[in-house]
Amino acid sequence: MVIATADNARSKSNLAQRRKDATKSSFWDRFCFWIFLCVLASLRETLFSGLGAADLVMRTRVEFEPAYLLAQRPYRETSLLLEVFTPNQGRAGLVANGARGPRSKLRGTLQLFTPLLLSWSEAGELGTLRVAECDGAAVDLAGERVFHGWYVNELLLKLTERHDPHPRLYRDYGQTLGSLAGDRGEAALRVFEKRLLAQIGYALPLDGDLEPQRRYRFDPEQGARPAEREDSDVYPGSSLMALAEERLETRQALRDARKLLHGALQRQLAGRELETPRLLRAARAVGDPAKR
User: Fold this and answer.
1) Is residue 199 within 8 Å of residue 268, measured between CB atoms?
2) For the chain, how big is the Rg over CA atoms in Å?
């Protein structure tokens, strides 16, 4: 009986000690956590004091990316807003600080139809241009061919999204500029339009079994179907085959490709007007007094 009483006393003593130790441990854990929160708050104030929301956005740097300039316009007193087309970053908007200044080295570099190497930093929708270098000779376009180059640029501006890379379309763009300077400029335009539609997800369904001498009604979504009667939306099979093979070697094939592609592009433009064709028509009217 005495032994049992002594054991009970020791058990109660041990239980009390464990409770005391647990209370100390719990207090110490809470104290350490409170210290941690205080240190974290202090670090936040030290590291981020004086920074605005824009400074907290993660910045990315792009180094020596091949590019073509699509468009530019004045920004503030001496700067430019640029739209460029690149193989790995897609279309990008950049700010060229001081590019219009009298001593800026960028004035002779940032030219249309010139292969470039650009470096910029980006922290949002617009990047800040840091370096611009020529990466080859400019394509020499003269007369109406300048309008053709502007037209290709406008298509890219209105039918591609920023930061959506199209490496193959970038290559096609460079090849098209070179072709515009030659004697196959119109065919190059039609092929570029066709490839652009394919790259943005609206490829023309030209892969059906076509007969050169047969007449077809063509729908940009459903493809070619034999025509039951003749009207403005009917094309010869030979013209559709020439467009599918990108061999636009006759005036008939070029004329039909232009009409067909115009309708397909208008669907994607969704009512947005292209300015370059209007400017070309105005320039032609000025040059021909009978059209004034």
Assistant:
1) no
2) 34
pTM of the model as a whole = 0.78
Amino acid at 2: V
Domains and CATH numbers, the chain: 60-138 (2.40.50.140), 167-287 (1.20.1440.120)
pLDDT classification of 17: cutoffs 50, 70, 90: low
Strands (E), 215-291: 215-219, 223-226, 234-236
* pLDDT score, position 46: 36
From residue 8, give the alpha-carbon distance in Å to each of 12, 95, 265. Answer: 6, 83, 93
Query: How would you write 132-181 as a 3-class SS string?
Result: EEECCCCCCCCCHHHHHHHHHHHHHHHHCCECCCCHHHHHHHHHHHHHHC
**What's the gap between Cα 167 and its chain centre?**
11
| DSSP-based three-state secondary structure for 230 | coil
Q: Which two tokens stand for residue 194?
A: 């066709």
pLDDT tens per residue, range 111-154: 999 999 999 998 888 999 999 999 999 999 999 999 999 999 99
Model pLDDT for residues 36-46, shown as the tens digit of each residue: 445 444 434 43
The pLDDT assigned to 36 comes to 47
Neighbour-count burial of 198, counting CB atoms closer than 10 A to its CB (0-12 exposed, 13-18 middle, 19+ buried):
middle
